[in-house]
Amino acid sequence: MPARAGIVWVIASYRLFRANMPLLSALTFGYLMVFTLMLVLPGGIGGMLFPLLQPMLTLAIANGCRGIAQNGNRPPPPDLLAGIRKRRPELMKLGALQLAGSLTVMLMMYLLDAKPDPEQPDQIFQVMAVVALLSSPLLLAFWFSPLLTGWHDVPPLKSTFFSLVAALRNWRAFLVYALTLLAVVLLPALLAMFAMQISETFGQILAKAIEILMLLLVLPTVLAGTYVSYHDIFAAPPVNEP
Known about the structure:
Layout: H1 5-19, H2 21-40, H3 45-71, H4 84-111, H5 123-141, H6 145-152, H7 156-169, H8 171-198, H9 200-234
Helix pairs in contact: 1-2, 1-8, 1-9, 2-3, 2-9, 3-4, 3-6, 3-9, 4-5, 4-6, 5-7, 6-7, 8-9
């Protein structure tokens, strides 16, 4: 895929969201609800359970996106459990691999002593860079793998390999995609910070409004990005072809 596909994915994801806002909003809040419930579980159990469930949650959202792409907001409603019913054990194994990868990243951060120092706030960007560097391969390996396992019966280990290879072969598009999303998030945040310099009250109100907009508009767009990029890379001609 060309580099400009990254921008196309963001736009296409937002259009997909606009095509059926109630469904994708409901799926997004369902995802957040599960994540929040995992956080409140005692003893760090939720942190262990969420990676196990995440492939099924990702596939359910992708099922919704595929249904929207095919029918918009017209009936019949999409089957959100497609690929989950028959491939639940494989998706759980995929979740176990994701959990193992997350623990590996945490171990590497501990060995590198990559944690922010409250007395040295300038180090936070260095820590964020280390986290991004260590987490990127894991993120890319599980970007497409739930869809490959759930829809194409690809075994979990192979699906992570194919997902990573597909992402690396299209690294330019993924880089532009990430930078575009970063700009979408950072520009409103910078605007709120600038507003606080003028008026703290107005700045706080603007920051809260931006936070709500991010939750209502940006997060569903981000979650739809997995299906949109999958559709271009695995199931459709490249965007530079007619």
